[in-house]
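Format notes (please read before filing issues)

Several people have asked whether sequences and structure tokens are stored in separate files. They are not. Every record keeps both together, in the order shown below: the sequence lines, then the token lines. Line labels are part of the format and must not be stripped during preprocessing.
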Amino acid sequence: MLQPKRVRYTKVFTRLPKGVSSKAVNIAFGEYGIKSLENGYITSNQVEAVRMAISKYIKRRGKVWIRVFPDLPVTAKPTSRMGGGKSPIDKWKSVVKKGRIIFEIGGVEEEMVLGAFEIAKHKLPLKVKLVTKQNG
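Then the structure lines:
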């Protein structure tokens, strides 16, 4: 699972992301990309599940790039509600805004990418679409 080695603040308040992404909106490494169509969060477990599913489907022929990194901590629900402070970190998530490229795939033919995309979109909590380097 992906997680940062060290962070400045271990527990943060989280809010829902708003607006459209301004970074990672174009394909930079591969020929195909998985683009987000809505705002939300992706946990490190979901990133790892999608990465494993794609690499297993394309039989490790091509290359998969992960364009998000889970660096936002999520704490567990506390056992007692009043007092006692915030609970320890349970998982890590990354903010994904509308229009951001989440994964990129390169080095395989289009039929393999279409099959891998069908598997990957069921593992993600957001609506996504497949984009190519030609159509952006």
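For reference, the curators noted about this record: The longest helix spans residues 44-57. DSSP finds two helices and seven strands in the chain.
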